[in-house]
Design brief:
This protein has two domains: about 160 residues, NAD(P)-binding Rossmann-like Domain (Rossmann fold, 3-Layer(aba) Sandwich), CATH 3.40.50.720; about 120 residues, N-(1-d-carboxylethyl)-l-norvaline Dehydrogenase, domain 2 (Orthogonal Bundle), CATH 1.10.1040. Helix content is about 50%, strand content about 15%. It has 13 helices and nine strands. It has a six-stranded parallel β-sheet with strand order 3-2-1-4-5-6. It has a three-stranded mixed β-sheet with strand order 7-8-9. Helix 11 packs antiparallel against helix 12. Bound molecules: NADPH dihydro-nicotinamide-adenine-dinucleotide phosphate. The site of NADPH dihydro-nicotinamide-adenine-dinucleotide phosphate has 24 residues, from helix 4, strand 7 and helix 6. It comes from Acinetobacter kookii. Belongs to the HIBADH-related family. Keywords: NAD, Oxidoreductase.
């Protein structure tokens, strides 16, 4: 039985994910580096804003930080309750998950890599996809808490497997983003109406999440709302490329896409949404996708 849960990292994703927990558990601790956010969360959702030392005394401890580095740094500073399960929803590095899982075993703490997909709207609606790596018993133990914000929840393998699936998923998003930017600047160069073209493609075999949502809802309307930062996508494509290299495989599309997304991220203004990657193509072609 889970008596208490905690959520560490109330960013664009974490703030919304943690909001579902009080509907299922009486004791929900939240902690954030900028502590005002934790206090605001407590006021808004009835969670308890507590010091980090107290948050890590919960039975199930969630984290959702930018990268595995912040998770490792934070774990190094705390004494986690014996018997707890740490569920890391960061889009992290598989090797780091394996390392933390081994390291925490000494304190009888289980570590699950449990990255999520579905963007901020999925976090808000509690409909995220959660891909989980780690031991089956820890997965079963944490599942009732994960169900608070997850809709499709899959145990995909041993430690690191969840992070690997997430990195490959985001690489596929990045490949689509680049190819859609190239395809649609080409169409515009040929005088094609992009909105009509998009309708045709979304009823045809070339459709993807990028054509169905990113292009119409972020690019063609020129809104580029910041919900998933472009440097975070560049981080994910880097993790995917490292996985390819670790396996000594050839994956030229992945290597090229990682370069393109990293370049787009380097060129982008501060606080750019991932969809802003198309602006690199717009500056090359002098064509605006609208
Ligand atoms: P945000 O940048 O919005 O939030 C980051 C969170 O991490 C904040 O709570 C921030 O605290 C905290 N943080 C940053 N650095 C540190 C540190 N050194 N020590 C302690 N806390 C720290 O990121 P997102 O919520 O967008 O993303 C979080 C993770 O989820 C990333 O791995 C991302 O790739 C992944 N993700 C994001 C999605 C999205 O649509 N945004 C979708 C799916 C996955 P503070 O408030 O103090 O800055």
């Amino acid at each position: 039985m889970i008596q208490s849960v905690a959520f560490i990292g109330l960013g664009a994703m974490g703030y919304r994910m943690a909001a579902h927990l009080p509907q299922h558990f009486d004791t929900v601790y939240v902690w954030n580096r900028n502590f005002e956010k934790a206090k605001q969360h407590a006021t808004e959702y009835g969670t308890q804003a507590v010091e980090l030392e107290q948050a890590v005394q919960a039975d199930i401890i969630f984290s959702c930080l930018p990268t595995s580095q912040e998770v490792e740094d934070l774990i190094a500073t705390v004494q986690i309750k014996s018997g707890a399960v740490w569920v890391d929803c960061t889009s992290g590095v598989p090797e780091s998950a394996k390392k933390l899982s081994q390291q925490l075993k000494a304190s009888e703490v289980d570590f699950l890599d449990a990255p999520v997909s579905g963007q901020t709207i999925g976090a808000e609606n509690g409909t995220l996809t959660v891909m989980i790596g780690g031991e089956a018993a820890a997965f079963e133990k944490a599942l009732p808490a994960i169900q608070a914000f997850g809709k499709l929840i899959k145990h995909v393998g041993d430690s690191g497997a969840g992070f690997a699936v997430k990195a490959v998923n985001n690489m596929l998003l990045a490949v689509n983003l680049c190819s859609v930017a190239e395809g649609f600047t080409t169409l515009k160069a040929h005088g094609v109406n992009l909105h009509e073209a998009l309708d045709c493609i979304n009823a045809s075999s070339g459709k993807s999440g990028v054509t169905e949502t990113v292009l119409p809802q972020r690019v063609l309307n020129r809104e580029f709302p910041l919900t998933f930062a472009l440097p975070l996508l560049a981080k994910d494509t880097g993790i995917a490329l490292d996985l390819v290299r670790d396996a000594k495989l050839s994956a030229p599309v992945i290597a090229l896409t990682q370069s393109l997304i990293q370049a787009a991220s380097n060129l982008a203004e501060k606080d750019s949404d991932f969809s802003s990657a198309v602006k690199m193509y717009e500056s090359w072609s002098k064509i605006t996708l609208e």
